[in-house]
Design a protein that fits this description.
By secondary structure, this protein is α/β, with parallel strands linked by helices. Helix content is about 20%, strand content about 35%. Strands 16-15-17-18-24-23-22-20 form an 8-stranded mixed β-sheet. Strand 3, helix 3 (about 80-95) and strand 4 form a beta-alpha-beta unit. It is elongated and about 160 Å long.
């Protein structure tokens, strides 16, 4: 209760009246008048009444003490033991808080929300958000349920304004260990066929076994190395980039019994293969209208080194021209087809026929070149159906189709076969989806027997026009017509000859994007896109293995003919493995060096400096032997917490209140005040009248 004044007159006027009264009282005392005391008392009561004293009583309600409880739900906590410990500790805290009605717990679960590419455990961001709407004087402390791997711990000096204990209850065992692998340095690009080098390291966190580790290295799904690594030591790996486009290196360290997680036992690195100056050998049997189309296409690509020979003068040609008058370049057959044949990425025979220019043994060299991984394209014309066809040489063992000896001489629209509509070489060719196709006609094809491989384009009556096939490790394509130049010249509107020729050449050189059976995956932020290319039937569901080890089935829907796709939102960060039939693909979601996976063993050291500075405690929920969660009791403290209690969770209780109402009592209001004044003046008159 407090006393306040609500004067009826200005204070200056009351002061003047008080001075006059004081002077009169002093005069009465000086002259010794009877009733001077009573007169002074009456004047004092009058002045006091004019000041209007009022007693005020405030009705206040005590505010609760806010205690945020931050629960770590990050991926490093996502294992059976730590999850069980966290849940048990949370339930125990709820029971203890229920005993203290003046304490308001605010439970906040903090984890990766699936939006960050570099996930980390940020408990103090969650703590600040939990108490953003209350003054710091009401915060009694903070309790963190975590494994200790927190990545936004502030400096103790920067957290001094908190003025309440920060406690950490740590999950996990003190003797934990974990083995992981990380890529230290690696190139992002590499020239196909050139050696490359990267460095990786096996890391043992905690009390690891200390022995060596076996690391298996796979390139595009094929094992290329098995290394013995010493934990903590950088180890080099040399390899050769086998193909253009994405090449996926996968490192897997053998798990150790007792380690807390195997989610970080694998790492991937994607290296972009770049073909440096592709070497293409184009051999034209004789000058013809389509020769320029091939030459112009290959010369327009700056990444291609073209070696082109046209057989203008076969050995049997004898016209009496003196040798010294000939200006032809001799065809270096031995150099091209024996000494340097393996230096070429693609060999093209354009309307070439066997007329004694190449010794018969050289065709066998070409066949071996293909079977060992080379690429061969046959652009056939009428000569392929004749007696000098190269199908009658040892090269026939790699050719997908043998000629019957006849030519089909009729106008036709080249059409995509059922397989061609699905095959990435021909799928989506401009003008193919109309009937008749929106391109010009051709007028002849080489008639062949039933071909091997995939017929992706057809002539009239379903006869093969473009055949793609594999031979050993290499690839062969046969274009059974020499009329492609009509599209290049714009005949009847022309056609997509550039796309057709280029895709065919890239498929022959094993471009990954043009594989007819392939499973690939890529990410767009936190969305995982799975693509399944096939020229067969629908591939069914794909199996997705998450970084945590859990699996889920994913339905693939047809996006285009032969292309099935699914988009899956992801919450976990790490290495995902997708399998379908005999195919598999790996993709990493999020940053490969995310803090969440650099260290996963639980620790009490990271939060101890901050806890010591705020008079809080850091303790484990279980010891090295037990499985039962041991939770300390709460200790409400009035005023500032000045000492650390290792066995209890000290909480500073707030003394903050909220005003609910005010009761006022004027002393001179009503009959009581008037009566008191009348009594004083009556006593004065009575005394003076005697």
């Amino acid at each position: 209760m407090t006393l306040q004044f609500s004067p009826f007159l200005p204070w200056l006027a009351i002061a003047a009246i008080g001075l006059v009264g004081l002077a009169l009282a002093a005069l009465g005392f000086w002259r010794g008048l009877r009733g001077a005391v009573i007169r002074a008392l009456a004047l004092a009561l009058l002045v006091f009444a004019l000041a209007n004293p009022v007693f005020l009583q405030e009705d206040r309600e005590a505010l609760s003490t806010v205690v945020p409880v931050i629960v770590d739900r990050s991926q490093s906590q996502d294992n059976e033991q730590r999850t069980a410990q966290t849940n048990a500790a949370l339930e125990g805290l709820k029971e203890r808080f229920a005993r203290y009605p003046r304490i308001e717990p605010r439970i906040v679960e903090a984890g990766d929300d699936g939006t960050s590419d570099t996930p980390s455990t940020r408990l103090f961001d969650a703590l600040n958000a939990a108490i953003a709407d209350v003054p710091r004087s009401r915060v009694g402390g903070a309790i963190l349920l975590t494994d200790g791997q927190v990545h936004d711990i502030p400096e103790a000096s920067a957290f001094s304004s908190f003025e309440a204990p920060v406690h950490a209850l740590v999950t996990g065992r003190p003797d934990e260990f974990d083995r992981r692998i990380e890529i230290v340095s690696a190139p992002r690009f590499g020239i196909v066929g050139e050696p490359q080098e990267l460095k990786f390291r096996v890391v043992d966190d905690g009390a690891g076994p200390g022995d060596t580790a076996r690391v298996t290295v796979r390139l595009n799904g094929n094992e290329i190395a098995s290394e013995i690594a010493q934990p903590g030591t950088e180890q080099p790996l040399r390899f050769t980039v086998p193909r253009g486009g994405n090449n996926i290196l996968e490192f897997e360290v053998e798990p150790v019994e007792g380690e807390i997680t195997t989610a970080n036992n694998r790492a991937v690195h994607v290296i972009e293969g770049i073909r440096e100056n592709l070497r293409v050998l184009l051999v034209s049997g004789e000058p013809h209208a389509g020769e320029r189309a091939w030459r112009n296409l290959l010369k327009s690509d700056t990444a291609i080194d073209l070696v082109h020979f046209t057989i203008l003068r076969p050995p049997e040609k004898q016209d009496g021209t003196p040798i010294n008058e000939l200006s032809l370049i001799a065809f270096p057959t031995r150099e091209l087809f024996v000494d340097k044949i393996n230096e070429f990425d693609l060999i093209i025979f354009d309307r070439y026929q066997h007329r004694g220019v190449l010794p018969i043994l050289y065709y066998d060299n070409i066949a071996q070149y293909v079977e060992n991984g080379g690429a061969l394209l046959i652009a056939a014309g009428p000569e392929h159906a004749g007696n000098d066809s190269i199908a009658g040489t040892p090269l026939s063992v790699v050719l997908p189709a043998n000629p019957t000896g006849a030519m089909n001489e009729a106008a036709f629209y080249p059409r995509l076969s059922d397989q061609g509509k699905k095959h990435p070489v021909t799928r989506g060719l401009e003008g193919a989806n109309e009937e008749p196709p929106h391109w010009g006609r051709w007028f002849r094809t080489v008639d062949v027997q039933r071909p091997d491989g995939n017929v992706v384009m057809e002539a009239n009556d379903g006869k093969p026009l473009l055949v793609l096939n594999r031979a050993g490790k290499g690839r062969v394509a046969m274009l059974l017509s020499d009329q492609g130049w009509l599209w290049a010249r714009g005949f009847e509107g022309g056609g997509p000859h550039v796309s057709l020729y280029r895709r065919t050449a890239h498929w022959l050189m094993q471009e990954p994007a043009l594989e007819e059976e392939a499973l690939t995956a890529r990410t767009f932020g936190r969305t995982l896109q799975i693509n399944r290319q096939t020229i067969g039937d629908a591939p069914g569901e794909a199996t997705l293995k998450l970084p945590s080890g859990a699996t889920q089935q994913v339905t693939l829907s047809e996006a285009e003919p032969g292309l099935y796709r699914a988009e899956v939102p992801t919450a976990e960060t790490g290495l995902y493995e997708i399998t379908n039939d005999d195919l598999s693909a790996l993709v990493h979601v999020g940053a490969v060096d995310a803090p969440e996976f650099k260290a996963t063993i639980s620790t009490t050291e990271s939060l101890k400096p901050l806890a010591d500075a705020t008079k809080g405690t850091v303790r484990r929920l279980v010891d090295a032997e037990g499985e039962t969660v041991s939770l300390p009791p709460l200790l409400p403290v009035s005023g500032q917490v000045r000492t650390v209690d290792e066995n209890r969770l000290s909480l500073r209780m707030t003394d903050e209140t909220v005003l609910k109402g005010i009761n006022s009592l004027p002393l001179f209001a009503g009959f009581a005040g008037v009566g008191l004044l009348l009594l004083a003046f009556s006593a004065m008159w009575y005394r003076e009248g005697r």
